[in-house]
Predict the structure.
Amino acid sequence: MLAPRGAIRSAPKRRRFIPVAPVVNTDCRGIMLVYLGAATITFVLVAGAHILRSAYLEIESARRAAGPNASGERAGPGLRTRDHERLSLDAIDAREIEAAASAINSDAGAAVKRAADIIFSVALLTFLAPLILATAIAIRLDSAGPIFYRQRRVGRGGAVFNVLKFRSMVTDAEADGPQYAEIGDQRITRVGHFIRRLRIDEIPQTINVLRGEMSFVGPRPERPEFVAMLENEIPHYQSRHLVKPGITGWAQVKYEYAASVAGAREKLRYDLFYISRYTPLMDVAIVFMTVRVALFGLGSR
């Protein structure tokens, strides 16, 4: 329709173009992130299930291979033992243990174990960083003394090093000399009871692992004062020093806290089984089993 003569024509309206592409791109990015997250979670679950299954098959194979060198009595509260999970000290061939330890300490074996040590330690420190900070604050507020505690332990080849732990006892706990912790030990602080039950006091030993003094999985390092006594009392005890000690181990997930020569003898049977039957997947299985032991406070004092 024509406008009347003399009328002012209004400027033609311009069409507004809505920028569709960025909106579509944003939606696509969101969808992609959702799918990527779901795929990652699925991958982790499937991979975790595969690792657990493989580790279980490895341990079952080791149990069958152990044959007659085992007995099936119950160990500690909540910790059941089965046949083929520990060796008989009377039937051990020291040369076989030494050969197995040599394989673990070989260039290839040590490289695999060292890689696993670093991965497990960094993952633990990263995942539990808030818990580590909270524990340090709780120890500081609960009792007088340092947050961390250093103690001499025996490592591979009999080398002595200082293990690092969260302090769980009063500062003068060993004024009368080294001694095992007992049930209801009065030297343990309030926070100490909690962190020992859940194995939180052991977390700083990841620093020892990163330094190369320990492995993440292996026989627990013992104090020099006790080692001298136990080597005289228990046959093959020195064989546990053929490999690096660990934060956790086969004996820790299968047996209770040992505070006697008899207990140390039983744990040695598990330690030597671990050395003789070691595989990387067995280490993975022990790490998962350690989570169960820690969560339920099994075998702690």
The chain has one domain: 24-169+184-296. Residues 52 and 285 are 7 Å apart (CA to CA). Strands lie at 148-154, 160-166, 215-217, 246-248.
